[in-house]
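Backbone description:
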Amino acid sequence: MSVFILALIDIHDPDRYKLYEEAAAEIFAREEVKVHAVDDSPYFAGDIKAGRIVLLEFKDKEHRKAFFQTPDYIEAGKHRDAASEIRTIAFDRFAGF
């Protein structure tokens, strides 16, 4: 069953973050991670704030775990971590009632 990650991101170094985006786009495509949404002006209700949200889909939990352990994504993530603050929420696809 598919699993998702919702990332709430505050970018403080756009130039460095761009390095992450360039590397990550290729890795997402190669590893078959679907990017469903990227929004730089999200609307939030309540006490949630972020400058950008990203919604990713993985085939299943094993796919998600393996993806974050790939050496080139770990390397790309160094740019992301240096250029932004990120919070994530991982959740399963709704299987229905």
